[in-house]
Write a structure and sequence with these properties.
The chain is mainly α. The chain contains 21 helices and 2 strands. A two-stranded antiparallel sheet has the order 1-2.
C-alpha cells in the first residue's frame, strides 16, 4: 500500500517537472581548468543520478566479500547452535553416542567451543570410553589454554564419578599449584580423600571449604565421618575440639549430624550440661533425627530433667519413633524400667530399628527376661540381614498400647531386675 502511494507520488512529480522542463530545458555551463561543459538541466540531473548510483555500486562491490563472509559465518553459527541444542537433547534422552557426535560436529563455527568439548567428554565417559574423554579435554586445553582451571576441574569431577580417585588427586594437584584454595577444587579434594579413607587430609581441608555444596558428592556425610574420626582420638581435649569447630565453615557447623557429633564429644569430655543446652537449641531450629538420638546419649548432670524435657516434646510428637526411643533411653538412665519398656515397644511398633531392638534387648536382660532379650537381639539383626523369615521374632511390640508404664509397673520391673 505504502509502496503504491510513493510510486504514484513519483509519477505525479515527474509529470509536473516534465511539463516545465519541456517548456524551458534550461542551460548549464561548467568551466573547469580551461574546459567548458555545456548541457541542459535534465542532462545534469541525469548525470548526477548516474554518478550517485555508480558510487553506490562501487561501495557495494567493495563491501561484498566482507558481507558474504559474515553471512557464511552467521549460517555456521546458527548450524553450530542447532547441533549443540540437538546434542544436549540426545544427552538428556540417554543417546550419548549421537549426542557426542552432534556436539563435536558443532565445533566448527561455534563461538563457545569449550561447552562442546566438555559435554563431549562427559558423553564419552557415559559410554565407558575414558580415553576419548581425555582426548576431548586435551583438545579443549589446546584450543583454549586460558580455560585450564575449568577443564581440569571437569576432568577431576569426571574421574571421581568414575572412581578414578588417584588420578583425580593428580589432576587436582595441578589446580592447587596454579590456583591455591580454589573453592571447587577443595571440595573435590575432600571427596577424593574421603573416597580413599584419608580422613586426616579431609579434616585438614574442611576449614578451607568456602560455601560448600553439601549435597554434591556426599560432602556432608564425608564431613560427619571425618569429625567422628577427629573426636575419637584418645588424647582429644575440649580446647582442641572448640578450636577446630570454630575453624569450620558456618554451613558445616549448622549441619545436624555435625552438631550431634560435637555434643556427644563434649559430653564425653565432661561437658554434658553444655552439650544438652546445645542440642536443645539446635532442636528448636531443626527437628532432626540425629539431634534427637544424640540428646538421649549425652550425660548431663541432671538426667531426670532431660527425661522431663523429652516427655514434654512427646506431647507434640507422640508418633515420633526416634523421640520415643530417646525417651526410653533416658528412662533407663534413671532406672524407670517399666516406662522405658513402654516407650521402646511404642517406638518399635511405629518404626522398627536395629538400635531400638538392641536397646530393647538390653532392657529385657536388665529385667531378667533372657530368652526375650535374645529374640530382640536377633530381630534387630534380621533388619540388617533382611533375613526376617529365618529368625524368630518377638510378639508385636506395643501390645500394652502406647501409654507409659505406671509407677507400679516400674516398681515391679525394678524388683525383677534386682532378683
Amino acid at each position: 500500500m505504502r509502496a503504491g502511494f510513493w510510486a504514484l507520488a513519483a509519477l505525479l512529480l515527474g509529470a509536473f517537472l516534465a511539463h516545465f522542463l519541456l517548456q524551458d530545458r534550461g542551460y548549464v555551463l561548467i568551466t573547469f581548468m580551461g574546459y567548458n561543459i555545456e548541457m541542459s538541466v535534465p542532462a545534469l540531473f541525469l548525470l548526477l543520478c548516474g554518478a550517485y548510483f555508480g558510487l553506490r555500486l562501487i561501495v557495494f562491490l567493495w563491501r561484498a566479500p566482507r558481507r558474504v563472509g559474515e553471512a557464511v559465518a552467521d549460517v555456521r553459527t546458527r548450524r553450530a547452535g542447532t547441533k549443540l541444542t540437538r546434542g544436549l537433547i540426545h544427552l538428556a534422552e540417554g543417546d550419548w553416542s549421537k549426542g557426542e557426535r552432534l556436539l563435536t560436529q558443532g565445533l566448527r563455527g561455534t563461538e563457545a567451543p569449550l561447552i562442546n568439548y566438555l559435554l563431549a567428554a562427559r558423553a564419552a565417559q557415559l559410554q565407558g570410553s575414558n580415553e576419548r574423554r581425555d582426548d576431548w579435554l586435551r583438545l579443549a586445553y589446546e584450543e583454549l589454554p586460558e580455560a585450564e582451571a575449568a577443564i581440569l576441574l571437569t576432568q577431576a569431577e569426571l574421574q571421581l564419578e568414575h572412581n578414578e580417585h588417584e588420578r583425580a588427586l593428580a589432576t587436582l594437584s595441578r589446580i592447587e599449584a596454579d590456583h591455591p584454595g580454589h573453592p571447587l577444587a577443595v571440595e573435590l579434594l575432600v571427596r577424593a580423600h574421603g573416597a580413599l579413607g584419608d580422613w586426616k587430609s579431609v579434616l585438614a581441608l574442611l576449614p578451607k571449604l568456602k560455601d560448600p555444596r553439601l549435597d554434591a558428592g556426599g560432602v556432608a556425610e564425608l564431613a560427619a565421618t571425618a569429625l567422628r574420626h577427629f573426636v575419637a582420638r584418645a588424647n582429644l581435649s575440649d580446647t582442641e575440639l572448640e578450636e577446630y569447630w570454630a575453624r569450620l565453615p558456618v554451613r558445616l557447623r549448622k549441619l545436624p549430624a555435625l552438631i550431634a557429633i560435637r555434643a556427644q564429644s563434649r559430653s564425653a569430655l565432661g561437658r554434658g550440661d553444655a552439650a544438652e543446652k546445645e542440642l536443645r537449641q539446635a532442636l528448636k531450629q531443626h527437628w532432626h533425627e540425629e539431634l534427637i538420638l544424640a540428646y538421649g546419649k549425652i550425660k548431663s548432670p541432671d538426667p531426670a530433667r532431660q527425661l522431663r524435657r523429652a516427655e514434654q516434646w512427646l506431647k507434640g510428637h507422640a508418633e515420633d519413633a526416634v523421640l520415643l526411643l530417646t525417651t526410653a533411653r533416658l528412662c533407663m538412665a534413671v532406672e524407670l524400667w517399666g516406662k522405658a519398656r513402654s516407650y521402646l515397644e511404642s517406638s518399635l511398633a511405629l518404626a522398627p530399628r536395629t538400635d531400638a531392638y538392641a536397646l530393647y534387648g538390653q532392657l529385657l536382660k536388665e529385667l531378667g527376661e533372657e530368652d526375650s532379650a535374645a529374640i530382640a537381639f536377633r530381630s534387630g539383626l534380621a533388619l540388617v540381614t533382611s533375613a526376617v523369615s529365618e529368625l524368630p521374632a518377638l510378639d508385636k511390640p506395643g501390645a500394652r498400647g502406647n501409654r507409659p508404664a505406671t509407677p507400679t509397673e516400674d516398681e515391679n520391673a525394678a524388683s525383677r531386675a534386682t532378683r
